[in-house]
Every structure is written in C-alpha cells, then in structure tokens.
TrEMBL record:
Top-level taxon of origin: Bacteria
Protein known as: MBL fold metallo-hydrolase
InterPro entries, alphabetized: Metallo-B-lactamas, RibonucZ/Hydroxyglut_hydro, UPF0173_UPF0282_UlaG_hydrolase
SMART domains given in the database record: Lactamase_B
Transmembrane region(s): none
All residue ranges annotated as the Metallo-beta-lactamase domain in the record: 7-180
Amino acid sequence: MKITKYIHSCLLLEQDGEQLLFDPGTFTFADGAVTPDTFKNVSTVVITHQHPDHLDVKALQEIVRLSGAAVLSTPEVADQLKPYGLKVQVVVEGSLQVGAFQLEAVSVPHEPILDSELPQMLAFFINGKVLNPADSFSPILQKFKRVELLILPVMAPFLTELRVAEFARQLEPQQILPVHDGYAKDFFVEQRYDTYEPHFAEQGIQFHRLSQPGQSVTV
C-alpha cells in the first residue's frame, strides 16, 4: 500500500490499482501547489471530521465531479454537505470493505480546542497496517499498539511536542508518518522534523520526513 501526503492531513492511499483519499482540507489547496485534479482517479474520499483543515467543500465538490468518488464520513459531515449536493455514506463505527481497503472505523474524541464545540470524528485502521487517528490521541486507540505505521499529528494549537511524543510512546508503532503541519512554513516543518526524527529513532521507530506534497511511503 502506497501512501502519499498532499499537505497537512490529506493522504492518498493506493492499493491494487485503487485510490482512497483522506481529508482534502483547505490547507492542501491554499497555495495552488495541489489542485483537485490531482485526485481525479480516486474511488472513495474519507472525511474524518468537519473542520476546514480536513474538509474543503469546494475542492471536494470538484474532486467528486472529476472522479465520481463516493464520500464516507460522520453524520455531522453528511448534514453539512447535503446542501451542496454531496451525498455521504454515513459511518458511525465498525468494519467496512471499500474496494481494496479494509477499514475499521473508531469513534474518537477530538483533542480539546479553545472556545469551540468538538466535532464528531472517526479514526481509521486501514488494511491491518496503518492507523489514522485523525485529531485524537485518545486512550481508545491503544488497542492498535505496535501498529506498523502511525499517521501522527505533529503540530497543532492543541498539541505540544511532549504530548506528541507520549502518544507515540504509548502506541509503539514501527513507523511514523507526520501530518497536521500544513500551516507552517517549510523551514519550520523541517526544524520540527529535526527534533522528532532522532527522538523516535532512539526508540527504534522510523520517522518519514514527508515535508513536500507528493512524497510517499509504502507499507
């Protein structure tokens, strides 16, 4: 399974000729480095929650128009997208087969944020190898301990590097793919990676420095 990062938390997964897209949000398309046309061959789009950095409605409309992709998300996102003519397959929790992708959806709480109601949110365990926790570091996710690849938010208003490191320590993944860093300038992202990479290496965890759109890993 190939996983390509397209800024912030937008990830394209490819398996057996099929493409699954996670969280095409506003930061992904903000500077024009990535366009909806990049995702014209996706078969399914998964939106973990309704925050704009994970859901760009205008871009999603164009992706669906170009690809004919199905959209999977929470009841809250389904209600939000209905006025825009976007149909959503509602997922609450449990296992589902999406083409070549076996998904286990887990309802998780968003990390606390300032003066804002927390959204409905789903984490996903993919093909028995990859955990995408969305914006949650919940203890619920410890059932995926020693996962092969952890998709790890490394920067956010609701995070510190100590919190990031502790969550990874608890899960003990073999590899980490950093996300949620699309709002920072390149030099700052690289500086953060310079901190995280040796820290995780000491624990025997491979940290993938995917700082530029279109960089990928294979698991």
